[in-house]
Amino acid sequence: MNAVAMPLADGLTIARRNIKKIKRAPDMIGGVVMLPIVLVLMFAYVFGSVIDVPGMSYKDFLLPGIFVQAVITGAQITGYSLTTDLEKGIYDRFRSLPMAPSAVLIGQTASDLLMNVASLVVMGSMGLIVGWRVHTSPLEAIAGFALLLLFAYAFSWVTAAVALALRTPASFNNVVTMLSFPLVFVSNAFIDSSRLPTPLRVFADWNPVSTFTQAARDLFGNTSSAMKMSSAWPMQNAIAASLIWIAVLLVVFVPLATRLYKRTMTS
Fold it and tell me: Would you say residue 181 lies in a domain?
């Protein structure tokens, strides 16, 4: 079997194993189903009652940001699962098997992508129930969800690299939470970033979370000409900037995570 087919075949086997594990973890399934519902209801009705967005419904403005937050949270399952499997010694068993070193990571990220698909389906359905609407063509809407899933997949490799560097669930959760909170909340995900003080506004304009949120808004038609638009390049070219971010994350973190996994298996 060649160098490409073997990792993919082994990765598919690991993905099947992870999917079976998810079926036996009701807490994880509950998180995928319940967390999106709670997020949509809380932000739509709590923040939506006090935040005004010029020219559009706050629910239309909000849902793309909630989608981005959800895929970031969902992608963290990859890192958490890796650290828990490391603690249980499962990878010590894999070490004795004739499998490609990248197969575990390919399988883990692939199975977690399915979790993100389920999360987006539930969240999109809840969004429609509370009043969110897509104002573009079906193809553009599909492209919006596809972009979110590509981001989820790329970001899962980031969390895999962080998890393999830290190796314990507690330290992984602490570090990822500390890093993800500023990215999510100092962005345009929940508020109009043009209203932020200048240093925070500049950070938000170049924040990848803002880039993906704006790209999703463009593809779903959740925009308004009455809103003040940032002149920053990522905001003016959000879809192109998002694709660049995805390519950079994959180019950097796929080999890095694979290298860290090999080092973990030989230590």
Answer: yes
Tens-digit pLDDT profile for residues 185-204: 999 998 888 889 999 999 99
Is 30 inside any structural domain? yes
Tokens at 247, concatenated:
């390519």
**Are 133 and 60 contacting, i.e. CB atoms less than 8 angstroms apart?**
yes
Entry pTM: 0.89
Cα 220 to the center of its chain, rounded Å: 18
* Structural domain range at position 223: 26-83+114-266
pLDDT in tens, 10-33: 667 777 777 776 666 666 666 666
In this structure, the dihedral spanned by the alpha carbons of residues 10, 151, 219 and 136, taken in order and rounded to 10 degrees, is: 40
In a domain, 58, yes or no: yes
Q: Is residue 34 part of a domain?
A: yes
How many CB atoms lie under 10 A from the CB of residue 194? 14
Q: Looking at the 3D structure of the chain, how many domains does it have?
A: 1
Provide CB contacts within 8 A for 218, sequence distance 6+.
238, 239
Model confidence at 267: pLDDT above 70? no
